[in-house]
Write a structure and sequence with these properties.
Pfam family, one: 4HBT
CATH architecture of the domain at 20-152: Roll
Protein name: Acyl-CoA hydrolase
Low-confidence stretches: 2-13
Keywords: Hydrolase
Oligomer: single chain
InterPro entries: Cytosol_ACT, HOTDOG_ACOT, HotDog_dom_sf, Thioestr_dom
Bound molecules: coenzyme A
Largest sheet: 5 strands, antiparallel
Number of helices: 3
Number of strands: 7
Shape: globular
Organism: Streptomyces pseudovenezuelae
CATH superfamily of the domain at 20-152: Hotdog Thioesterase
CATH topology of the domain at 20-152: Thiol Ester Dehydrase, Chain A
Order of helices and strands: HEEHEEEEEH
Strand content: 25-35%
Mean pLDDT: 92
Structural class: alpha+beta
């Protein structure tokens, strides 16, 4: 989707029209991906490279989006990736992902990243979090409708409501940027 198209989207699309597809509960697609960090995962400082964590996040979220939508899904955007603590070689990293919100053809997947020493029984601590939007696609790569997610717990419900706020802000931010660009272009200012 172009920035213009996304910006032009009406917030009314947040009430999706997918009546023929039965909804799916959050737990049906919730997934955890675990991986032990090794020397090949490090950056120049000797801790784990952020990109390694981001790939795991994208992998886990993609599995969730595929399971929820019942077919292929592609990453449309990744935002609010937060790195809270460094991850070290020898950490067992758990990437926990679930569908927070569904639109007509897109899904927001929320991800929490936890780490614990691979050979110790100390509790895992949260080291990161992220929110990704996936679009379900058909064989031609075109968006296809998704089942609506059915929050099952109070926490699921809170995450669903927060995801709707992020969706509104994504659209509003793009709209504001497009308006600024159009204004600058009308004034003959450079890109
Ligand atoms: C994502 C993609 C399928 C969207 O296709 P499109 O023709 O623009 O389709 P639409 O405009 O109908 O958008 C489809 C849905 O995705 C959402 N979407 C599209 N771009 C988005 C973005 N940048 N951020 C958030 N949501 C986005 C739309 O809001 C829409 O959701 P809705 O149906 O629930 O309202 C297309 O841009 C694409 O294939 N991108 C490449 C994906 C990819 O290769 N990912 C891996 C990167 S390495």
């Amino acid at each position: 989707m172009t920035d213009q198209a996304l910006a032009a989207e009406s917030d009314s699309r947040d009430t999706p029209d997918t009546p023929d597809i039965p909804g799916k509960p959050t737990s049906a697609s919730r997934t955890t991906l675990s991986h032990i960090m090794t020397n090949s995962d490090t950056n120049l400082l000797g801790t784990v490279h952020g990109g390694v964590i981001m790939k795991l996040v994208d992998d886990a979220a993609g599995a969730v989006a595929g399971r929820h939508s019942g077919g292929p899904a592609v990453t449309a955007s990744m935002d609010e990736m937060a790195f809270l603590e460094p991850v070290r070689v020898g950490d067992l990293v758990h990437v926990k992902a679930q569908v927070n919100w569904t639109g007509r053809t897109s899904m927001e997947v929320g991800v929490r990243v936890l780490a614990e020493r691979w050979n110790e029984s100390t509790p895992a601590t949260q080291v990161g979090s992220a929110y990704l939007v996936f679009a379900a696609v058909d064989a031609d790569g075109k968006p296809r409708p998704v089942p609506q997610v059915i929050p099952e717990t109070e926490r699921d419900e809170r995450r669903n409501q927060e995801a709707q706020i992020r969706r509104t802000h994504r659209l509003a931010r793009r709209r504001a940027i497009m308006e600024l660009r159009e204004k600058r272009a009308a004034e003959g200012l450079a890109d």
